[in-house]
């Protein structure tokens, strides 16, 4: 199974919802607190091109934020995207 990484920050409702969705799919994600340091936040922005959390990656593939994750799941492409990573 591909490594899943999720950049989060404290008190982020969308982060919590994304982690719940991943867990419901049996995915154990590597969680990185983007708010822990400026360097970590900059790393997330460089990798994703975005300034908001959560930012989710299946392997090296950037999935996007919570809305993107839900869209991927509802389209039926979640498992294929995870397997391809």
From TrEMBL:
Keyword Electron transport attributed: yes
Keyword tags: Cytoplasm, Electron transport, Redox-active center, Transport
MF terms in GO: glutathione disulfide oxidoreductase activity
Domain Glutaredoxin: 4-63
Family matches, as SUPFAM superfamilies: Thioredoxin-like (SSF52833)
PANTHER family: GLUTAREDOXIN 2, GLUTAREDOXIN-1-RELATED
Protein name, as recorded: Glutaredoxin
Source species: Duganella callida
């Amino acid at each position: 199974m591909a490594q899943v990484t999720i950049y989060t920050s404290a008190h982020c409702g969308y982060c919590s919802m994304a982690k719940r969705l991943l867990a419901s799919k049996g995915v154990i994600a590597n969680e990185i607190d983007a708010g822990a340091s400026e360097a970590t936040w900059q790393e997330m922005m460089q990798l994703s091109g975005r300034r908001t959390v959560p930012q989710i990656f299946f392997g090296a593939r950037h999935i996007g934020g919570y809305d993107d994750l839900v869209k991927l799941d509802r389209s039926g492409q979640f498992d294929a995207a995870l397997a391809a990573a």
